[in-house]
From TrEMBL:
GO molecular function: 3-methyl-2-oxobutanoate hydroxymethyltransferase activity; magnesium ion binding; methyltransferase activity
Enzyme active site: 187 (proton acceptor)
HAMAP family noted in UniProt: PanB (MF_00156)
UniProt name for this protein: 3-methyl-2-oxobutanoate hydroxymethyltransferase
Localization, UniProt: Cytoplasm
Catalytically driven reaction(s): (6R)-5,10-methylene-5,6,7,8-tetrahydrofolate + 3-methyl-2-oxobutanoate + H2O = 2-dehydropantoate + (6S)-5,6,7,8-tetrahydrofolate
Statement: the UniProt record of this protein carries the keyword Metal-binding: yes
GO CC annotation, single: cytoplasm
Length: 272
């Protein structure tokens, strides 16, 4: 259905062919309004489980549910015309076994019309990624700083600062590529490790806090727009929408208080 109604003209094979050639542009979006802004410029729109924190004010991504991800995925799909839409599988919806992951992923694809799912984990998710991709579910992997493991990681900490940790993260990258993931998000890892992984695996790497040495980049939209209060070091603020919004709301409050809003041109009058 989605292919016929001309949404998501970017395909999984097209993304895979971009490796080493043209950088892949990815951003998150959580709803139809924001997806409409992003779609003309992005190759990939990710409906990230970061929406738990950014959109719902939760303390981590652990509280996102499958129903919540599907609700936001459906919203995004109403304005995605061009970009390939990926929806995060939330914590607890895929880790038990490949069967559980397939049940969750098939719900996401059927109920939203998106093209692919993303899940966190490397070697531990090898079987699950193979199970899904062999059954028609394109999978984007996510390794390095995996926010759903914030409890075991002890915080949102950059990975691979210590070279002793590199071989495990490289093994994760190789595992997800060999299992059939079409791309992998590298989050919060040091530059030389990102460069090594990008050079040594056959699928595109999409970096967030993982240096320019990746095949593409992703950021949380609200971070790069300057809408979020605090953002990690790896974020560049391409806009200052938070400041602009606060100033607009302040002026509205002032105008209502002074009865200068609504003015005549904002007021309905009866026929003369
Ligand atoms: N708004 C937002 N942006 C994100 O990029 C994002 C979320 N939310 N929620 C889910 C995860 C959590 N992420 C985070 C959150 C914090 C840091 C952070 O504070 N990093 C430290 C680095 C500390 C270290 O080097 O060990 C920093 O100062 O940048 C990083 C990634 C990335 N994701
Ligand atoms: C930041 C990206 C990679 C993500 O997983 C999310 O937004 O949830
Ligand atoms: Mg996520």
């Amino acid at each position: 259905m989605s292919a016929q109604n001309q949404s998501q003209s970017v395909t999984v094979p097209q993304i895979m062919r971009r490796k080493g050639l043209q950088p892949i542009v990815a951003l998150t979006a959580y709803n139809a309004l924001m997806a409409g802004l992003v779609d003309p410029y992005a190759d990939i729109i990710l409906v990230g489980d970061s929406l738990a924190m950014v959109e719902h004010g939760m303390a981590s991504t652990l509280e996102a549910t499958l129903d919540l991800m599907i609700l936001h995925g459906r919203s995004v799909m109403r304005s995605a015309r061009q970009a390939l839409v990926v929806v995060d599988l939330p914590f607890g919806s895929y880790e038990e076994n490949p069967e559980q992951a397939f049940r969750s992923a098939s719900r996401v694809l059927r109920e939203t019309g998106c093209t692919a799912v993303k899940l966190e984990g490397g070697v531990a998710m090898r079987e699950t990624i193979a199970f899904l991709t062999q059954r028609g579910v394109p999978v984007m992997a996510h390794i390095g700083l995996t926010p759903q493991s914030v409890m075991t990681l002890g915080g949102f900490k950059t990975q691979g600062r210590d070279r002793a940790a590199w071989s495990a993260i490289e093994a994760d990258a190789v595992a997800v590529a060999e299992a059939g993931a079409f791309a992998v998000v590298l989050e919060g890892i040091v530059e030389p490790l990102a460069a090594r992984i990008t050079e040594n695996i056959a699928i595109p790497t999409i970096g967030i806090g993982a240096s320019a040495r990746c095949d593409g980049q992703i950021l949380v939209l609200e971070d790069m727009l300057g809408l979020t209060d605090r953002a990690p070091k790896f974020v560049r603020r391409f806009g200052a929408l938070g400041d602009a919004a606060r100033e607009a709301v302040r002026q509205y409050a002032e105008a209502v208080g002074a009865r200068s809003f609504p003015a005549d041109q904002e007021t309905y009058l009866p026929k003369k």
